[in-house]
Known about the structure:
Blueprint: E1 2-6, E2 10-15, E3 18-23, H1 25-30, H2 37-48, E4 52-58, E5 61-68, H3 76-85, E6 91-93, H4 98-108, E7 112-114, H5 119-129, E8 134-137, H6 143-148, E9 151-155, H7 160-165, E10 168-170, H8 176-210, H9 224-243
Parallel strand pairs: 6-7, 8-9, 9-10
Antiparallel strand pairs: 1-2, 2-3, 3-4, 4-5
Helix pairs in contact: 2-4, 3-8, 8-9
Amino acid sequence: DEVTAAPGLGLSARVEGQALRIGNRAALEAAGIAPDPGLMADADHAASEGATPVHLAVNGTHVASFALADPGRPESAKAIAALQAMGLQTVMLSGDLPATARAVGARLGIGRVEAGLSPEDKLTAIRAMGPGSVFVGDGINDAPALAAAETGIAIGTGTDIAIESADAVLMSGDPTGVVRAIRLSRAVMRNIRQNLFWAFAYNVALIPVAMGVLVPFGGPQLSPMLGAGAMALSSVFVVGNALRLRRAA
């Protein structure tokens, strides 16, 4: 009948007069509910294998635990390896238990794993990384970090608040899209520098010729028509160089 969400913890509700609470271990402890030792032992074992334990309490008593496992997308490990090959440091910021996060991180090849993080903890971690940080997320708990990162990338299949907080959205949900986005951004910046250099060098070289500086020394005199054609040629080069970005996309 009544549902209350606690970010980073879980949900509490009242159904047919029963007080229900479902979430992680911290949610039970925050409510002053003593975890059942047997259920917690099973939950810890599941966490060591990469599953996420979720606990259910009814009227202040821990009555059940569930192990939720997400096999992950098969492209994830490939995307992580590609990012590392590009010289980027990969870090996993997770709200899951340390055992669960470490198991997933090992499977994906992520060396640095920070687990048990609340949305505020993720926000603090992103701010500590400083300029150049890129955060990829899809959940409600990821929204503050997505907004704080220099570049926030949301998964298109994620929550609306995560999508609204991000700078870019992967519509397909394929994590290799992050790799393509970074490669494209690098290609764009490289192309911009090339075009600026070309425009500067071209104008520095030909404006004096168009002014007739070389005429007293026996150099050519550039007619206005040829000058206009030379400027058009410069523009064609810049546009043509920019069109090469289609191959990087």
